[in-house]
Amino acid sequence: MYKSIVIGTGPAGLTAAIYLARANMKPLVIEGMQPGGQLTTTTDIENFPGFPDGIMGPELMDNMRKQAERFGAEFKTGWVDKVDFSKRPFKLTVEGMGEIEAESVIISTGASAKYLGIPGEQENIGRGVSTCATCDGFFFRGKKILVIGGGDSAMEEANFLTRFGSSVTLVNRREELRASKIMQERARGNEKIIWALNRVPLEVVAGDNGVKGLKVFNNESKQEELIEADGVFVAIGHTPNTKFLENQITTDEVGYILVKPGTTETNIPGVFACGDVQDVRYRQAISAAGTGCMAAMDCEKFLEGSMVHDWSETL
């Protein structure tokens, strides 16, 4: 039996663990298949406060983990197969650990960026391939940038990246775009955006010092083409890691956990959510860490008995 269990070890989960451990709650932190979350695949992080010269993603996450351990957080590696939030204590079935119980649970399992699954994509993550314009756009000042996607996210990222790149080419496999009309109009009104529609991405082509371009199939000419670019941003959406919850928590239509505005409370008293698993808008390390702090403080108040209201009917 644990007072609190944190599921996930990205910036949100580790921050929650630090705060819970410092409050002498001795949380159990369950690491999944990717300890440290998406930041472990990121090289230089230059926008996390406190590091004027930047810091490597894996180093930042390792430091946060050590900080949580220092205050008494317990870490175990496993995969949460299913949960039972029907009553307290809550039950979690974890691969390799069996069934464990907790008085409270913080869900910080994040959201996974969708990838195309084409050759050269995974091999060049951090070497020119990215899924976050806000995180990595700065590194492509004055360079040719390419954005793949046809939805609102792709339009937004293309517009944002024009602040840095000499040009931004937007690639979509169809002539039609899924983006809303207003987002399309904003993108089409940007003179720095070059349109490469009706082109199917085939391969990310790498050179000696990173990405060289994207090989595509032109549906009109029926020929393969190489679109030169120094950076390739894949903007086809994210998938929240919530399948294991089996509809026991209220989510939106995509699967992001809904929380009471201004808090990390879910529709289940004693279950909290933080980080990208409940954030459809910002998805930054620093904002995730902030909600991790909130979740720990909400959790502590709940266990002290000062958070007794049930707002599940409002979701």
UniProtKB/TrEMBL annotation:
Cross-referenced Pfam families: Pyr_redox_2
Top EC class, one word: oxidoreductase
Cofactor(s) listed in the protein's UniProt record: FAD
Note describing how the cofactor binds: Binds 1 FAD per subunit.
UniProt entry keywords in alphabetical sequence: Disulfide bond, FAD, Flavoprotein, NADP, Oxidoreductase, Redox-active center
Residue ranges of every copy of the FAD/NAD(P)-binding domain listed in the record: 3-292
Keyword hit for Disulfide bond: yes
GO molecular function: thioredoxin-disulfide reductase (NADPH) activity
Oligomeric form and interacting partners: Homodimer.
Stated name of the protein: Thioredoxin reductase
Organism: Paenibacillus dendrobii
Organism ancestry: Bacteria, Bacillati, Bacillota, Bacilli, Bacillales
